[in-house]
Amino acid sequence: MxxxxxxxxxxxxxxxxxxxxxxxxxEKNGYLxxxxxxxxxxxxxxxxxxxxxxxxxxxxxxxxxxxxxxxVKEQSPMTEVIVITGFATMETAKSSFQKGVFDFxxxxxxxxxxxxxxxxxxxxxxxxx
Amino acid sequence: MTKGLEPIKTxxxxxIQGKIVPITVIFELFQNILQTNNRILELMADMNxxxxxxxxxxRQYILSASREMNELVDRLIRDxxxxxxxxxxxxxxxxxxxxxxxxxxxxxxxxxxxxPYAMGMDAAGVALADSVGGKAANLGELKTRFGHxxxxxxxxxxxxxxKVIEGNLIAGKIEKITGRxxxxxxxxxxxxxxxxxxxxxxxxxxxxxxxxxxxxxQNNNSDVARWAVRSSAIGEDSETSFAGQFKTLLNVPSNxxxxxxxxxxxxxYSESAMEYRQEKGLHENETAMAVxxxxxxHAEKSGVLHTLDPAAPEDDTMVISAAWxxxxxxxxxxxxxxxxxxxxxPPYPIVEMDIIRKPERLMPSSSGECAFEHVPVEMQTAAxxxxxxxxxxxxxxxxxxKYFKAPQExxxxxxxxxxxxxxxxxxxxxxxxxxRMVCDISDAIDGHPVIFANKGEIAQSGxxxxxxxxxxTDEDLRAFPDxxxxxxxxxxxRFAAVAAKANGIITDVGSATGHLANxxxxxRIPTILNTGIxxxxxxxxxxxxxxxxxxxxxxxxxxxxxxxxxxxxxxxDSPEYRTLHRILKKIxxxxxxxPRGNNFTPAGCRTYHDITRFxxxxxxxxxxxxxxxxxxxxxxxxxxxxxSDIPIDLxxxxxxxxxxxxxxxRKKITEExxxxxxxxxxxxxxxxxxxxxxxxxxxxxxxxxxxLTRTFSPELASPRFVGLNLAVISREYANISLKLGYHFNxxxxxxxxxxxxxxxxxxxxxxxxxxxxxxxxxxxxxxxLEENDFMVEFTHDIVVANLKKFNTGQxxxxxxxxxxxxxxxxxxxxxxxxxxxxxxxxxxxxxxIRNPVxxxxxxxxxxxxxxxxxxxx
Lengths: 129, 873
What we know:
heterodimer, A: alpha/beta, Rossmann fold, 5-stranded parallel beta sheet, 5 helices, globular, B: alpha+beta, Four Helix Bundle (Hemerythrin (Met), subunit A), Dna Ligase, domain 1, D-amino Acid Aminotransferase, Chain A, domain 1, 5 domains, 9-stranded mixed beta sheet, 28 helices, 31 strands, 40% helix
């Protein structure tokens, strides 16, 4: 795996446990991963750097996930966004499809599921490129 | 589901209007109870499943799952008390207590000043880390998992610490001092000594002192007893290891344990600990210290084992330091020690050794202190541990590492009788070195073909490697080698016997909600179940690496992949996992296993599972002992009896068009007069020839039968009529409760025009023989149901299976199969004396299904169910 093909991923979730478990699992699969638990900080980072894939929760304090992903898409339309959300907020998640979300997963999800989704997003990026 | 309940609603309306008999109310409550009961079991299985590491769950999940559980159990109790006319109001009190405990867990306010102030080392564990501190939590786990290797003792909890702080009114003072220290107006040294002085001179509140004294006497408070009194702060011996920052006092006599306790808790405010907390961003008011009191081991030799050399992880070796006497001076670097480098792989050959002269050793003295003394000349230059002792040590170390999923630093000792003790174990912080090693996983995997991927379910997450060892018989289990990967066709709970040895488990069939899955989680053995092909593609002795995180099995041993797991913080250490684990302890364990037992009472219920089980048993009893006729029912809701060759006494309540009109008013009806589609299908399956096992039952069956006569009225005591059974039916619906002997079957089905409304659920519970045989029968039932497309949840002797959205013809076939199954498995648990029987009876069942010879009912046009189009099933 060379550096040119290594995809960058930003993960935003206000629950640390999600970040702690996703980061090493995605790194193990060869991705470069940055994690944030505060949406404002994640957004500041997105303004500095375009990520290939953004994984975000929807229900958070402050800037909510929906606003965040809208801003991400404005800033960097090529970025593929994967929404991870609790079962209860699934309806909101579905409406976010119109904003160009690649896919969404209801929490709790299996590690293998999210890795598969990320790989699909990666394949789409490669195809578009 | 809703359609099936509609007639009940109608009856309820009519009841309010005074037109209907109470049996329908009873049935409606019963139906609700069963539905809630099933949902509780499903949710319990779901929460258990999440605790295995395959899922990423967050706090939100724990909150919503726990709250749903609370609501369900509350509803169950309410419905049941209506059914049982408030005879069991005590259940409400039990519920209140458990739900409050769960709320406390959820609120995160775990460190209170309330008891227990002391608890046995056996009771300590990772789930209680906030109460017993990190060190005791680890030791408690090891004591439970590895038994004799940990010294006897007890833990003085963090609640005791809080009580001391509260009782001496020093919380505010500590806060003031640390506040000034953070602002810089007080040096660390001054702040530390002021707080330490307060704590060392504190008065131990009487309730705390009493519990400590009582714990001492329960262990060994004789004059000769000596204690190692060790710090066990929150977070100590975990990621934030605080290594060596707190005090340990050795060789303390029982009557000096109380002042020793104060000295240890005072060390929570040592200079280095305060600075460490500040550096790590840990709040002063979140900190608390538990204290472990362990009996002194009369160590002949002691030392430290690193299960992976931190200086050279790529060498794949363990490193042992060993010296005569107590190990403290090795840890603090005061004396030199023998060093052994040993391979990490069985049979653990010694790679290198360095034996030095050891002129001094630290020994406990009679005064209650420790002192250095000269080592006899002939021992000074001798290796202080032999090959056998090294082997036992590294084998134990390897198990501990596997369990904690990280390389460990283990303090150990051998006494004069050559018994090995683990004094403490903490993770080695060598992430940096390992990250360098395994930075590129794709390179590591190169050249290792994938044997299979994404087959089956992960019951316990983790990465491991080893040689394949297939297990078919008990003989195989006995021969199971250390560090092998267990490969088997079915997921037998008997594998618990080798849980401490197995590196991993892979099976062809099984479920992540089953019994073996729970064992795998308990022992944290990476486990993949239900792969379908494991026994076919994994041959004996084959070296494999299993990644039970991503569900991939590779050919060959991929060391780097295994090390990868060490880099990650294991999910078992996360507060979320520990919270879920603690909550599950209040929900899932089942202690009310025997309905005839003395503890089968509301007060005997310890967990939600107990409450659920109790209510289920009593609700079924209420319905079965309901005596029709007394309520004076006249029209709808009439109870009739089925007249049939099938050896089962079945009462039928028709709620709408379930039987032909002409038969509606009679006390007895025939199978031909039933119009309910699912009921007919079930009876067709139940009555098929060859399914009622007619082989003579073992002798002890007589005893079993005689016990039944005590419970059931004399007319039911003949072998043909065991138990009393009830079916509530309509044209499209059947709800059939069967109490056959001591087990209970519930079949509920709605089969109508709309494919989306169609469902069949099957619930099985109980049995009369020992737990193992009942488990085997439940296992057999689960396997048969799985083979027949049902979604199956399975814990111990409870099987819940559901099937939805098949077309009418297919649904009726499944219901007929359930009839076959009930007949087939009726008494099987008595015969289930080995796991081999599961396979045998599974084959027999399949044979009968394929080839229903001399099935006279099937040939009988009148009995064979037809779907709405008149197609024979």
